[in-house]
Amino acid sequence: MSLNFGRLQLAIPGPSIIPDRVLAAMHKPSPNIYYGPLVDMVDTLYPDLKTVAQTKHDMAIYIANGHGAWEAALKNTLIEGDKVLILGTGRFPLTWAEMAQSHGIKTEIIQFGMHDDADVAKVREALSADTKGEIRAVLAVQTDTASSVKNDIPAIRKAIDETGHNALYMVDCIASLGCDEYHMDEWGVDVTITACQKGLMTPAGIAFVYFNDKAKEARKRAKPGEYWDWVLRTQSDIFYRQFDGTAPTQHLYGIREALDILVHEEGMKACWKRHETQAKAVWAALDGWGTLQPNIADPEKRSTAVTTVKTAPGQATAIREWCEQSAGLVLGIPLGFEGKDADRYFRIGHMGHLNPPMLLGALTTIETAMKALKIEHEEGAISAACQVLANHKSD
Ligand SMILES: *Cc1c(COP(=O)(O)O)cnc(C)c1O
Question: Could you tell me if the CB of 177 is within 6 A of ligand 1?
Fold first, then answer.
């Protein structure tokens, strides 16, 4: 007998749950794309998206997923034969590195594995060893969505500065923007990359690349080709040119509504605080059960958008399958864990459009799965999660 009725709930690290308001905002007939309300509305997206990343610099919109934004950042700043330093925390930086290699860019990868953040001493060491200044850019993720580690973005900036190295600093915030606290300008990031389907609560399909003056300098030497060129997108007053073709009209309505919710109603500070509380509730449940471990041991180094969970062999797959098939809760599959380790991990996405009934629903369903599967666990974990939520203060 299955209890799997009602609404399917995603607790995966992207795509995230889309607010009904965003879906409703997208449910409109195609507008006039030459002039009028749509064209005027798109102008309002730029300042709000800059608020989300805490930057005053430029931003280009692409019809793309996160991979497209990765490519745009590489193509606008680098040429074939250039070298980049990749901070290999978890899985996603390695995928970005493979993309760079596919463009003929040389990659030096520091491997930090699946359980750690980037060690700034190693970053310093690699940049100091580059006496010829061959490294053109340092590539890092804020949150690695596979290991759920969060890198210390300002500390990496400090390490770069301490070596006096001139490399560009590019940060992938695809999983973290609108979840983990982020200050592009204050933290000295040159290029920030994100996409709309995680913290920004909109169906996958548009992506954003933010770039400062130093990145603009690098663009002068690069050869991005027409489609990825951020100059054409940001300096054209012809609407059609901003998208290098037809605008993704319904997506633009969707992101407008999502930004109303995020920037104008909740506000970034409250949003970051809410994510912190949500994440702590998940960790309190893990501590309470005793059987399931967070993959990242130090809470300071955990993402507030996703938590990767370690179980005894085979349990992770069994829990995921029970939650999905018997209860209608989709948990994240393991990514980046090799061989016999792979079936020991699952991921809980807790990003974006989430409130206590949704979050507690997911946690309680995981506990229900453990009861159904006779996986030993302590009682009181859900109560501990409730207590974290009860203690929430938004400022
Ligand atoms: C999701 C994600 C990506 C890839 O985004 P796609 O939209 O799937 O191409 C890249 N980096 C990070 C950190 C992510 O979380």
Answer: no
Quick one: which of 178, 393, 198, 145 has its CA closest to 277?
393
Stated pTM of the model = 0.97
| 87 touches 151 (CB < 8 A) | yes
Residue nearest to atom 4 of ligand 1 (CA): 66
Q: Are residues 52 and 80 in the same domain?
A: yes
Among 145, 148, 208, name the best residue to mutate to test ligand 1's pocket (greatest count of ligand atoms within 8 A of Cβ): 145
State the Cα–Cα distance between residues 83 and 75, nearest whole angstrom: 13
Ligand 1 in reach of 14 Cβ (< 6 A): yes
Interval 161-190: pLDDT, tens:
999 999 999 999 999 999 999 999 999 999
Q: Is any atom of ligand 1 closer than 6 Å to the C-beta of 178?
A: no
Co-location of 217 and 284 in the same domain: no
Element (H, E) at 162: helix 153-163
Instruction: Residue 220: give its domain's CATH number.
Output: 3.40.640.10
| Mean pLDDT along residues 218-240 | 93
Same domain, 82 and 104: yes
Identify whether the C-beta of residue 142 lies closer than 8 Å to the C-beta of residue 182: yes
Q: Which amino acid is at 62?
A: Y
Q: Which residues contact 258 (CB under 8 A, 6 or more apart)?
A: 19, 22, 196, 200, 201, 202
Ligand 1 centroid to Cα of residue 70, in Å, is: 9
Residues of the domain holding 126: 21-264
Name the domain boundary from 234, 264, 294: 264
Atom of ligand 1 nearest to the CA of 68: 9
